[in-house]
Amino acid sequence: MKLAFFLLILPLLSWVARAGETVVFEDHFDTKPDSTWRWLREEAPDWRVRQGALEIHIQPGDANTVRNALLRPAPDRRQGRFAVEVTVTSLKRPQQQYEQAGLTWYTGGKPVFKLVKELVDGQLMIIPGRVPMTNETVRLRLVVSGNSWTAQFRPDGQGRFQTAATGELPVPAADEVSLQCYHGPADAEHWIRFDDFRVLKQEE
Which of 8, 52, 89, 102 is the most exposed place for a label (fewest CB within 10 A)? Predict the structure, then answer.
């Protein structure tokens, strides 16, 4: 039995070894967010931990007024290449123009970049890149190194990561990474589910 199980997981172990990634931090939100997170404009009734994941009520607003944004120190991109990942699920289909959820990067206390699933002119897409993506669930991955970023995603968290876009970040300055959602409808209650947050150090 043990031999059969080992043979079953051997390909997976080989893939992990080839990937050359080391987990620096992870949070599955089993009971509550890790103490290293902080809330920005917290409104406690509009977030919850349910069934082993963090759920946030999408409210009206934008990047500068977002409520219930969860932030933590970002990896030091001057020290190598890192990947930041999270699984995002819409519990109700987005309906409001620019309704969105995902990762936001802060530099010097200001939002400077986002990797999100967003509704634009009736089309769900990955931003940046404006890549169509209609799945309820998506695995987002932001790879950063120095001043560069690569935005990637996997619909339903399956298959290979697809690259949506690449670009540059400002010079590091007290960087933070955030889970957030905004531009929610005022006349409906939509929630977003965040799960399996990870920061990984990648081999150069």
Answer: 8
Look at residues 152, 172, 151 and name the one whose alpha carbon lies nearest to residue 76: 172
**pTM for the whole structure:** 0.90
CATH classification number, 22-202, choose in 1.10.220.30, 3.40.50.1100, 3.40.30.10, 2.60.120.200: 2.60.120.200
Place of tokens 């509550």: 32
Residue 127, pLDDT score: 98
Q: Are 177 and 24 in contact (CB under 8 A)?
A: no
The DSSP call for residue 8 is H
Segments making up each domain of the chain, as ranges: 22-202
**Within 13 Å, how many C-alpha atoms sit on residue 123's CB side?**
8
